[in-house]
Amino acid sequence: MKKLYAYLVISFALLVTNSLAQPCQNGRYATEVFPNHTLTSNITYGANTTFSGANNSLKLDFYEPTGDSELNRPLIIWVHGGSFLGGSKTDQDMTALSQRFARKGYACASIDYRLGFFPIDSANAVKAVVRAVQDLKAAIRFFYKDKQTTDTYHIDTNLIYVGGSSAGAITALHVAYLDNICEISGYLNQATINQLGGLDGNSGNPGYSTSVQGVINLCGALAQYSWLEAGDVPMVSIHGTADGTVKYNRGIVNPGTALMYLDGSRMLHERACAVNVSSEFYTFPGAGHVPYIGNNAYMDTTEWFIRDFLVTQLGCNETPLQLANTPLQQAILYPTLYCDGTAVDELCLAGIDEQLADMDVSLYPNPATDYLTLVAHEALFNELIIMDLQGRIIVSHKTQDTTVALDLTGLNPGNYLVNILLSNGKSGTKSVIVR
Fold it and tell me: What confidence tens digit (pLDDT) does each residue in 319-344 have?
């Protein structure tokens, strides 16, 4: 039975590949074979209430090749950035990418989604991400519904990709890899999640699929790298090493207030390789946040690298325009748990301890009760941050001393991480048990 199933899968894959090979050979999907694109603006794909309770109509802009006769086109749904507080479907980067890929033969949709959260804290930030995820899923369902009804947009629903910049990339990554409500339960309790409408939400087009074939991650991050698991869809990532907004590796998101740690593209690529999920990664050395906005050279590289990822996924035999470069920085995975309580990687603790030893910092006692003492032997401390295993910041202590005693009396018993930043630029993380 397994052999028959394998034969059917291979036969289907060959059928899909052969059906796409001819358009690719003619340059479609690889080059701008269409001189123009057609834009249809402000298509309503759903509706929902904002964080303040206001009614919000959800709209998208649809880009397609002018004069195209193809009835089954790959679709890219783009999601704009803006820290979940601002931005628009007409942002410069979303417009440019939609136009460029529409002229290659793709259909593209740039969506608006619900924005805003207050007060600015980690719990409300997570709610904003959930609302964006719900809206993107409604947009995906919109195109599945269209294909099964009027087929207005001529989409091949087997070839839907989601992507975006910054907050948009964060949204796309969570749509693809946050697939179990227990994963987010460490951030929001069950009642709050239910009140929001669950992970799928109520933004429109119920009953249709939210499946996608891949993720385009431009300067984005995932709350926890462990949510990316074996068998998940492939991704392509582009990120600058000097990104101060969404960190290239792992770092704090801080739009004026330190909210939580997120795992950036470097961490996600490391994780994808470890669990055999296809991942293409391009690093912009020394570049800041979304460097392709307003910079044609960066935008060209971004377009070419995404193009190479997509034509490979489509089965096209095309020469790459922009080869992947070597990732920079070391991605050190940290302790985290699956939903069933098992450790993602038992070697994580050992790796973190070795990193701390390289910094020449002492920490005691561990396990701790009321106080935790840290001693730096080679430089001053700059900041000490205690966070839980979900990455939420519990304590943030700035100092310029070599010895610090952190008060733990307000912490619940359990496992925590202490992130240490030194005046000489070194940083590291140590696991601590609080009793």
Answer: 999 999 999 998 877 777 777 667 66
